Amino acid sequence: MKFSECVYLLADSKSRRSCFCTILPAALLLCLVFFIGNAFIAPDYKQKLSVWGLTGSLQNFKSNKCENRCRPYGSEALPEGIMSQTSNLELRPLWGFPEKDANSSLGLFAVAVGIKQKDLINKMVRKFLSSQFVVMLFHYDGNVDKWKGFEWNDHVIHVSAINQTKWWFAKRFLHPDIVAEYSHIFLWDEDLGVENFNPKRYLSIIKSEGLDISQPALDRYKSVELHHQITIRVRRSIVHRRTYKPGLNGKGCDASSTAPPCTGWIEMMAPVFSRAAWRCVWYMIQNDLIHAWGLDMQLGYCAQGDRTKNVGVVDAEYIIHYGRPTLGGMDGNETNSSVKNQTSKSKTASSTKQASSHRHHHPLDHRYDVRRQSYRELDIFKKRWNKAVEEDKCWVDIYQ
């Protein structure tokens, strides 16, 4: 039926109903097309989806996806791609961009230093720098400028804080995210000799042996102080992981021993940690306990596996422990000069003689006080460990 015919029929009352029934389906179809099209071209996508009842579903999907993302605390206001979660200790120029070094740093060597031990430190620094290590000096005596005479002075990181231990420095300046680029962390004392030590060969050995926590062995003949049998070098050996020592009531060390100090143990004098092990150890270092006593007995929990296999002492690359008085102590020359001054002043009066005599036997040496504090911290650390074990119902002791 043509449109003109439809109009003509509308004039006829009898034909009006027939024409209306013909137009109505077409009109409804046009309205439906308009309705659907408007939903898809509306500027607000939420309005479009609300037509189909999908707004809530999309919001729930987006919310669940975002909630499952692990974001560092404090970064929630930033888009994820702009976050830089790690850093390093590389020195940067004030202008320009240095070329990427194909020989990137193998590890980090950090040591607490005093100017009195500059002869030993000079040998250490030269050896580690030549082996492509980043070197960081923790100055506990505040004498930073006195190191400027060494040619390597501007190539190392200097951090200074009076009378602080290497563990105090490490907790504050060696966060795992800061040192994440380095495969291994060397955290040493200053009174060590490295004539028979090669950093590159040492790294090669511990990687091939699978040692996540280690230390170089101590020369039994040249070392002044040897505190633990397991740290003494074994000749014709590359690595040893346990020691053998007779003892009563099961307190000795033999092939069946599975716990420190017989196995899975190193001394805190010259520890070396893998990147993964250091991340664990850093969390275990207590912020207010600066001597780290007691930490050695629990290092096995950070060994990334079996402590009887992943903790060891390297015999092929060994060091000398000179046992020099360092932090809290004084050397013999200073002691003698102090005594002479006190003796000359003591001639003025008998009371002064008595005071000088007392100082003669205790010449400003605080090593006894340091040792006493270390024992106190050991007791505190043990109690904290036991309390933490008791309160954490989800923690599983892998060595029990």
From TrEMBL:
Family matches, as Pfam families: DUF707 (PF05212)
- The portions of this protein that span the membrane are 20-41
The organism's taxonomic lineage, starting at the top: Eukaryota, Viridiplantae, Streptophyta, Embryophyta, Tracheophyta
Q: Where is the composition biased (Low complexity)?
A: 342-355
List the protein's name: Uncharacterized protein LOC107412399 isoform X1
What highest taxon heads this organism's lineage? Eukaryota
InterPro entries hit by this protein: DUF707
Provenance organism = Ziziphus jujuba
Stretch list, region Disordered? 329-363
Which keywords fit this entry according to its UniProt record?
Membrane, Transmembrane, Transmembrane helix
